Amino acid sequence: MKKLKLEELGRVSVDEFKDALKIPVTILLDSVRSLHNVGSAFRTADAFSIEKIILTGITGTPPHREIQKTALGATESVTWEYVEHIKEAIQKLKEAGYIIVLIEQTTESIALHNFSIDKTKKYCLVFGNEVHGVSDEAIALGDVALEIPQSGTKHSLNISVCVGIVVWEMTKQFSQFENWKLA
What we know:
Elements: H1 14-19, E1 23-30, H2 35-47, E2 50-56, H3 65-71, H4 74-77, E3 80-83, H5 86-95, E4 98-103, E5 110-111, E6 122-127, H6 136-141, E7 144-147, H7 159-174
Parallel strand pairs: 1-2, 1-6, 2-3, 4-6, 4-7, 5-7
Helix pairs in contact: 2-3, 2-7
């Protein structure tokens, strides 16, 4: 066994990535305050070929040094937009046929591992503020809420970890796409 060098990984260029097949999943960051978490979401979106990131409320936007520190250039490859009001962003997504998936602990949350996607649908994953979670405005407009089961003393995960876990699960479920390869 040997560690692969960067040139051995067979990575695509930014232009090739932009033209490549994406899974029909958008990430929406609902007033995420940490620029490092924003950058991490971009990097995860790039790693798993997510179609887009929408930034709302107080969420910082590229270009920003602190976002770039974690994103490592993914703000150049991943399509993104800023929409000030979460309600407006979600209404546009609903009009475009997206299922709004809140990543939040609610009275009706489904455990992530019990959620099955409809591979003919498009999904928007809503991740909330580090302290307050997904906003009440978004909760009112959501179609389903998912949570990651946890057994420790804490009641939440850092948003960057949460994005990675949920996006990985969605990627596994959409992996039947032609030209999509999972290691």
